[in-house]
């Protein structure tokens, strides 16, 4: 998952999921001199042309820093609009691209507080600032003088185009302003801004509620309740309990990184059900942290907002500048894959039910049984033990594997930065310097925040603290990957599952996308949501290549390379359980699109999910990967709203591109193809239309056939 937004959105203060698009009503700060000395507003100093001052972060000073940064940015915008000269690229777009640096630095810290080290104190600040940030964003989005200058340039460029980079920058900026209501009349602009303000508060509350449920619902186990659990998991669970003041107990936290392995290995069926219910009922407990009413309000407000712009529904508005273009195209892709996924689930359940009966378990497979019996079937069919695989997937080695892939494909080399050279926001965070191996030019820094902890949101994601563009100084990129691996007990290794190792590669793909950027202007360093997951999904494929297996998949105790026989089992099992994986994802993606193409007045949040999935013949043994009340991708902000399908859209490109590498003369390490990969698919970011960029790489458009083959589904099942 990537948190970085398009650069034009960054310049108007959109940095993290908790912040949304939203006529300035910014409270005055008490002491201007203090504000100017605020370390969160200050220019970054130190090595690498300046780095984030994470060692000076403080919740108490985030509020005045945001408010001062907003005033500074709005003043920069006023300077542009007060220019009496006719608008041109040099006096309007360039200063617009350069504006907002002070506030952008503050939002780096704001994003860290929001995602990595949230506290009750910060959540109060976040709730207070949300409407102010929305007012500020509307003050720019709906600035008539600014938009008039942009529109005049845009209209003129339709007859007399600018050079390519300038024209694409102008197009993207104009499009963003138009989508945010810049063409509306005064009354509608005011209503649009008010809606954004209301939404910003709802998004913040939604996120806070999820985090509260993750922190408040912890399952504590005794020694006699650990049946089936691997030793490494037990040690991590003991540490999690100790960290929460429950020494002698074992904590199953309410996050995917804890829930998933517990459901996979625990022999305690009643406890599996208990953990499952706690996890999948986040935001749905009919208490002060319940999200159902919030979701209803969000959907209604989104619908009213896009109606002001003349759109039939939110999805139609959202997809106009995505690769899919329309909700119908996105839904068509999902429904082509859905029947094959359901058919595979039916087979998987039959296999699990048969095995349960063979073992004397008089049960019917339920959602809390799926992972447990799937693992048993995997062992039986492929003689493949997930815990055995983990012995060869040690986090330090996997990190080196990431670096090796980056060296082979991008010619990058990574070197650990000496401790205390670069400030970090938590002791767990490590930093590496990234250089071009040939020229020794510093490309950037890579930060890794690997472990789960209280106050850190669940999942894995990537972001940048500073991106690259030629206009604002070509400074080294500051990129970050964030995971939720369970922190090990002292002196113990961090062993991860194959799925978690794949996710590690995925998120590093986002980081490489940031690091390899080669664009002229900040706006071009953005991305198209149903395309930006493609690069990261593609990088996952290098985990199972021979070179990485031989060099880095080594036993954490003996250093022996993972046996070839085990590798073959992994490869043969690569399409195993794809029914479950595809169906739980597609259920969420389809529901996302249904929510945003249905009249929200007709949606009963209590029942809509259940009734819609029933119409789709959703297997009762599986639930959505992200149930509605905790579907943060689409309800804690707008980055993935009506866009969760994008992972599948990107996976069509991924499967097709992977076949290109598989068939290349040197396979996944073919230098000629790697050069095209970087040149057309990574370095341009949004400086080139994604569809055109892919055709330059592949020589043609991607085909869905590769996706079906990749998942072991029959190609002829596509309708």
Automatic annotation (TrEMBL):
Q: Mind telling me which Gene3D superfamilies this protein's record contains? A: Collagenase (Catalytic Domain), Endopeptidase. Chain P, domain 1, Neurolysin, domain 3
Q: Does the keyword Hydrolase apply?
A: yes
Which domain of life does this protein belong to?
A: Bacteria
Question: What's a GO biological-process term for it?
Answer: proteolysis
- Pull one GO CC term from this UniProt entry: cytosol
InterPro entries recorded for this chain?
Answer: M3A_DCP (IPR034005), MetalloPept_cat_dom_sf (IPR024079), Neurolysin/TOP_dom2 (IPR024077), Neurolysin/TOP_N (IPR024080), Pept_M3A_M3B (IPR045090), Pept_M3A_M3B_dom (IPR001567)
Task: Indicate whether Iron-sulfur appears among the record's keywords.
Answer: no
What are its cofactors? Zn(2+)
What Gene Ontology terms describe what this protein does at the molecular function level? carboxypeptidase activity; metal ion binding; metalloendopeptidase activity
Keywords in alphabetical order: Hydrolase, Metal-binding, Metalloprotease, Protease, Zinc
Describe cofactor binding as the record notes it: Binds 1 zinc ion.
Q: Where is the Peptidase M3A/M3B catalytic domain?
A: 262-711
PANTHER family assigned to the protein according to its UniProt record, in alphabetical order: DIPEPTIDYL CARBOXYPEPTIDASE
Q: Which family does it belong to?
A: Belongs to the peptidase M3 family.
Q: What is this protein called?
A: Peptidase M3
